[in-house]
């Protein structure tokens, strides 16, 4: 396939940035989107031009490092698919593709398609952990957990921290991410002990990092590559109200 790309190029955080046109020729339908960009970058390097900077690590949809806005949609047009798992067979020969970084106040652009998502790390550092001693796997297996709670906790734990939910939200809200992180611990006995304190400090940190509030647009759920549901935002709100009550 031969494609025309318009890629956001920005030298650094203070550069204005602009869309630059590139031709991506000889692209196989079996390539992933990032492999297509690798091909474009090889061409740029051969021509002594600066390659396009973008993030990736696992390239198998589990680490959350990759993330680009493809034709206006974070992670591109395929449902429940990270951009590293998006394959070129979903595009047609002759297509024009627009590629931009995630855009949100709390995710400043570092370079080209790479944004700084350290704000997510700060939310996790604030309270996204448990400090009780849980023993080994056999100890864990002796704790009886209702199947529904275990299933819901696993659904929430699927969040890979990619940030697409923030990029899709008109308010730049991180409530889907924070809700998933609060919920997966709050639903299990080991996480319940610190639940009240956790939801308060993680919510405070989320607001301090410049994320907006949820406006019920549901765009986060629509783009989430792991299918995290807005029910976890409701869970975050419920946990927060409960914690306010328990703190007097
Ligand atoms: S909730 Fe979904 S979109 Fe948001 S960070 Fe987690 S995996 Fe990514
Ligand atoms: S590179 Fe790890 S999820 Fe895409």
> How far apart are the first and last residues' alpha carbons, in Å?
63 Å
- What is the helix tally? 10
Q: What share of the residues lie within helices?
A: 25-40%
Mean pLDDT: 96
Coarse morphology? elongated
Provide the structure class: alpha+beta
Describe the main β-sheet briefly. 5 strands, mixed
Bound molecules: iron/sulfur cluster, FE2/S2 (inorganic) cluster
Poorly predicted runs of 5 or more residues:
none
Strand portion? 5-15%
How are strands sequenced across the largest beta sheet? 2-1-5-3-4
The number of strands is 7
Radius of gyration: 20 Å
Secondary-structure element order, N to C: EEHEEEEEHHHHHHHHH
Describe the protein's architecture and organization:
The protein is of the alpha+beta class and 248 residues long. Helices cover 39% and strands 11% of the residues. It contains ten helices and seven strands. The strands form two sheets. Strands 2-1-5-3-4 form a five-stranded mixed beta sheet. It has a two-stranded antiparallel sheet with strand order 6-7. A hairpin with a 2-residue loop joins strand 3 (69-70) and strand 4 (73-74). The longest helix is centred in the last third of the chain and has 16 residues, at 231-246. The termini are far apart. Residues 56-59, 61-66, 82, 84, 160 line the site of FE2/S2 (inorganic) cluster.
């Amino acid at each position: 396939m031969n494609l025309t790309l318009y890629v956001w190029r920005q030298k650094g955080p203070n550069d204005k940035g602009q869309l630059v046109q590139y031709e991506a020729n000889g692209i196989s339908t079996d390539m992933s989107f990032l492999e297509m960009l690798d091909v474009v970058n090889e061409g740029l390097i051969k021509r002594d031009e600066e390659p396009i900077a973008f993030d990736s690590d696992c390239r198998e949809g589990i680490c959350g490092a990759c993330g680009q806005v493809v034709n206006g949609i974070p992670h591109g047009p395929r449902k429940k698919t990270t951009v590293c798992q998006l394959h070129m067979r979903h595009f047609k020969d002759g297509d024009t593709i627009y590629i931009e970084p995630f855009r949100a106040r709390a995710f400043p652009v570092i370079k080209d398609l790479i944004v700084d998502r350290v704000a997510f790390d700060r939310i996790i550092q604030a309270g996204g952990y448990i400090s009780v001693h849980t023993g080994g796997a056999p100890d864990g297996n002796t704790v009886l957990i209702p199947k529904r709670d275990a299933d819901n906790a696993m659904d929430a734990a699927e969040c890979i921290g990619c940030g697409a939910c923030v990029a899709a939200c008109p308010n730049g809200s991180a409530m889907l991410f924070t809700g998933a992180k609060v919920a997966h611990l709050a639903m299990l006995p080991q996480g319940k002990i610190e639940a009240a304190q956790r939801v308060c400090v993680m919510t405070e940190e989320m607001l301090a990092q410049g994320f907006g509030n949820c406006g019920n647009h549901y765009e986060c759920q629509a783009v989430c590559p792991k299918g995290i549901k807005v029910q976890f935002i409701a869970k975050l709100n419920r946990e927060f109200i409960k914690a306010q009550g328990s703190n007097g």
